[in-house]
Amino acid sequence: MSCKVRIPAPLRRYTGDAAELHLDAATVGDLVKTIEAGHPGFAAKVLDDKGQLRRFINIYVNQEDIRFAGGLGTPLKDGDEVSIIPAIAGGDTSPAAPVDSPAWGR
Amino acid sequence: MAERKAVNGFGGLTPDQIRRYSRHMLIPEIGPSGQKRISQGSALVVGTGGLGAPAAYYLAAAGVGRLGLIDGDRVDVSNLGRQILHFTPDVGRPKVESAAEKLRQLNPEIEVVTHEGRLDSSNALDLFRRYDVIVDGTDNFATRYLINDACVLTGRPFVHGSVLRFDGQASTFIPGSGPCYRCLYPDPPAPGTVPSCQEAGVLGPVPGIIGTIQALEVLKLLSGAGKTLSGRLLLFDGLTLRFEEVRLRPDPGCAACGKNPTIKELIDYERFCGLTPDRGPDA
User: Fold this and answer.
1) Following DSSP, what letter does each residue of B31-86 receive, concatenated?
2) Partners of A4 in the β-ladder
3) Residue A64 belongs to domain with CATH number
4) Among B43, B107, B109, B230, which one has the highest count of C-beta atoms within 10 angstroms of its own C-beta?
């Protein structure tokens, strides 16, 4: 038995395109280290340079946000489902992009 | 000649409206009174692209009384694979003009209001106060944080959607009764760290599904039917065709809606998201 980890599309290039991993780990922090060991580069995308979870990425254990539990120290047990959910934004027009038509309301 | 006189016992709807919306009114959770609330309601769809087009399509078809569209883009041929309100002859036209034309043909009973241009900190509060519900169809970080903060400041519910490749996310943020987007993600990623559809692609039906869910959320908010996505983030995986959800909680430390909010007016969201040289976080 192990934890099932859901890898979101933007991070799959760091897991060899795997959408789901099955791993053993005692805590969420250990889980990130375990993924990093098999897929170097992954941890840097999820954690900042202080080792904290980046503020545009959330990790959920059994649908609960670890920020409201024990953070990276949140314990894991066999059968837990872990989801790593980054903010995504697929839209290809940012407000900074040039707009052909006259701006409204300026 | 349209029949405009209200029929008793049908929530004050006209015979034309009763015929048009009969399938809605057969649903116990909607009924004539729910349809009347939809017909008297208003929604602003920000962006008429991959998410906004299907959302606006269904909202117009459902008879949302006043439907606002804001977009500063023109139709490009690369939009046509998913932005279903725009057709090949529309390439080069302003998107709001192209979208409004189709929506008015679809449902002449409703008022379609176009705002050609870009939503920004100078116009968002004034614009949002004119509508009951705001739909984010732009799917970019700067506009999303702008919409979130403007919705918190004006008390308007905000229906969120986002897509990438085969993946989608949706939620509804209701100021005062649930978390806001900043509770979920306090800061945006630095530019270039998260791919866009322009870089990573998106399959047309994925924004269609998420945009349609956004329309459903608006109709529930306006009619009062059912349970919205407030407090939940819906995750769609089109590759395996699975829906999942995670629970969202209000963050007492949230800069927009927490106990001591620091955002009391709209800020420069391009700078906040690092889109201008003099950038804020993660510089």
Assistant:
1) HHHHHHHHHH-EEEEE--STTHHHHHHHHHHTT-SEEEEEE--B--GGGTTT-TT-
2) A22, A81
3) 3.10.20.30
4) B43
Q: Which residues of A touch B166 (CB under 8 A)?
A: 9
ipTM given for this complex:
0.81
Q: Give me the amino acid identity at A24.
A: D
Cβ(A31)–Cβ(A3) under 8 Å?
A: yes
Q: Which residue of B has its CA nearest to A64?
A: B247
CA dihedral A69, B226, A87, B146 (to 10 degrees): -110
Q: Is B266 inside any structural domain? A: yes
Q: Which domain holds residue A60?
A: 3-86
Q: What is the pTM of this model?
A: 0.90
Number of other CB atoms surrounding residue A105 within 10 Å: 15
Q: What is the CATH number of the domain that holds B163?
A: 3.40.50.720
- The alpha carbon of residue B275 is apart from the nearest alpha carbon of chain A, in Å, by 7
Distance CA B65, CA B36 (A): 9
B 237-266: CB under 8 A from A: 237, 239-240, 244-249, 251
List the single residue in B with minimal CA-CA distance to A62: B246
What pLDDT, in 10s, does the model give residues B22-45?
999 999 999 999 999 999 999 999
Per-residue pLDDT tens over the stretch A26-79? 999 999 999 999 999 999 999 999 999 999 999 999 999 999 999 999 999 999
Asked if A9 and B165 come within 8 Å (Cβ–Cβ), the reply is: yes
Nearest to B147 by CA among B116, B126, B117, B125: B125
